[in-house]
Specification:
It contains 5 helices and 3 strands. It is an alpha/beta fold. The chain has one domain: Rossmann fold (3-Layer(aba) Sandwich), CATH 3.40.50.2300. α2 packs parallel to α3. It is globular, with a radius of gyration of 13 Å. The two termini are 24 Å apart. Keywords: Phosphoprotein.
Length: 109
């Protein structure tokens, strides 16, 4: 999935940083990485995407960073849970590369 996302986002010219897990992503942000946007899977081993959203939102300066969840889940209750945690958006997998790029361009001017 990481490779698919990186390939889809290459045309944007953005500097894409990857993390192997939610814990890895959180550690990178805690260590000083200031992403313009975070794209995470909902279901990961260990920390879930919703847990990552909550943790990132609790960090200084990360209150308004767009965070989008990628998931196979399409249930409304899961979307509401993500929104309540602070997620900006939701994209159902398998994702359309053009839609992902359009979303990124909208959220990262």
């Amino acid at each position: 999935m990481l490779m698919s996302v990186a390939i889809a986002l290459k045309p944007t010219g953005l500097d894409v940083k990857e993390a192997s897990s939610g814990e890895d992503a959180l550690a990178k942000v805690q260590a000083g990485l200031k992403p313009r946007m975070i794209l995470t899977d909902l279901n990961m081993g260990g920390m879930s995407g919703i847990d990552l959203v909550k943790a990132v939102r609790g960090l200084p300066g990360m209150g308004f960073t767009p965070i989008v969840l990628l998931t196979t889940e399409s249930q409304e209750d899961m979307r509401q849970m993500a929104k309540s945690a602070g997620a900006t958006g939701w994209l159902v997998k398998p994702f359309d590369a053009d839609k992902l790029v359009a979303l990124v361009r909208k959220l990262v001017p």
